[in-house]
Amino acid sequence: MTPIELLKSYKGKVFDNSPSPFTKWLAPTVIDASEGRIVFEFTVRPEWLNPMHNIHGGVTAAIIDDVIGTMMFSLGEDSFYTTINNTIDYFSVAKAGDKITAETQIIKKGKQFVHAECEIWNPDHTRMIARGTSNLFKTSLQK
Amino acid sequence: MTPIELLKSYKGKVFDNSPSPFTKWLAPTVIDASEGRIVFEFTVRPEWLNPMHNIHGGVTAAIIDDVIGTMMFSLGEDSFYTTINNTIDYFSVAKAGDKITAETQIIKKGKQFVHAECEIWNPDHTRMIARGTSNLFKTSLQK
Amino acid sequence: MTPIELLKSYKGKVFDNSPSPFTKWLAPTVIDASEGRIVFEFTVRPEWLNPMHNIHGGVTAAIIDDVIGTMMFSLGEDSFYTTINNTIDYFSVAKAGDKITAETQIIKKGKQFVHAECEIWNPDHTRMIARGTSNLFKTSLQK
Amino acid sequence: MTPIELLKSYKGKVFDNSPSPFTKWLAPTVIDASEGRIVFEFTVRPEWLNPMHNIHGGVTAAIIDDVIGTMMFSLGEDSFYTTINNTIDYFSVAKAGDKITAETQIIKKGKQFVHAECEIWNPDHTRMIARGTSNLFKTSLQK
What we know:
The structure is a homotetramer.
Chain A: H1 3-8, H2 21-26, E1 29-34, E2 37-43, H3 57-74, E3 79-90, E4 99-109, E5 113-121, E6 128-142
Antiparallel strand pairs in A: 1-2, 2-4, 3-6, 4-5, 5-6
């Protein structure tokens, strides 16, 4: 099974088969997956909150970075990509028990660099919670 | 006790008294704390890793955002601050069990906005692992 | 004439009527303008180049910031917006004499904050040259 | 003369000998230059203003990107560096005729990547106007 086929086989289920321990901790449910675009759903957990009992910005940032990483992995390339930087902009909140959706796609793919974007939405897609981008670099490290 | 006195009372110990559930999950040890500058130490845990068994960039981003939030809380102001955006740049790695140090300070404090920075270092301060900045906005929400 | 009507009246022409001296210096041609979305075209000038004779990243950044500012002005609101931060990612090049297109839109508009994006493309929209975002804050300063 | 010696020879004078046409247009005065750290002064010109008659954020962004580029050039390396991204945070204003100082330094230098920072200050260094960072990549393109 290719990485993208693996992801697709988890559609509607928690993706508990990631090679990334932190992805497992985040426990995303696969909503959709195709080459260069994946949609994951997360349930906001009590330990993810800030003092105002909203989802902590650090967790939102972690989710954005992680889903972009999983999307790169799903490309099935031979080389590892390393993240150069992340930018995250915060717009709205989510509470414990809320579901949030992370929609991730490649904006630009060059020979060495990839620029990817992830948007976090509420489930009915009426309110964007956060948005982030990453620049990634194709290393010479083989998988 | 003021917030900064509270933090200082945890010097050398895990700060397990935060009003932030996610800060508790990260379990920082207070190394140093003064107004507008705090230094925390973290131990990289197995669930914090990426597929290459290095600290996951998402966790690094979460730590940076969280420590900046704790520093803002330590100012003891009446109003909550909200994070507008984060920028994180990645330079190096850490492994499970490694200790990492997060040094956080205010770069610019205006009436409504604060710009803060956090650097993540290895313990002997010879290798910078990542660096992030946040813009924060003073809300009218009282604590 | 409202600001957006003013912009529309310059469709196909250089917008030489801006209240911004720097916008005048950049000399954009209005391709399209509607509320919260404008498209401008620029011709790369010799003084805009870097040592490799490509458009200088600083000029690209300046264009992105400027077009986002013009879009905010075109909303015709009573208050000035101030830019909190810019993020610019570079993907490709342009040469002296080349035309480039800046497509700008609002991603999120709240009561106090706006998040806007600008993409720079080559004229036939086959190659993205750069992309930037800004967070803006509605000041109490009246126009 | 090495690039850094060239820069030093312009101390107190406008650096009008840059291989970058846009640097020439910005007309920086060299205040200080050493390996990996340069300080330039600029005079805010009428065409650099925004509608509020303050220095335009786009010009500030352009200056930050340009001075970082000049610092990289001053390293005298054989290869060209390309800018991956810029981040600029805005804090304060400057008026036409004001002098502003751009202090630029390398934060992290790896084999392939450099992370650099530029701060814009008023002349007596009491007020930071803006601050920016760039990630740069060492290309295989030889000078």
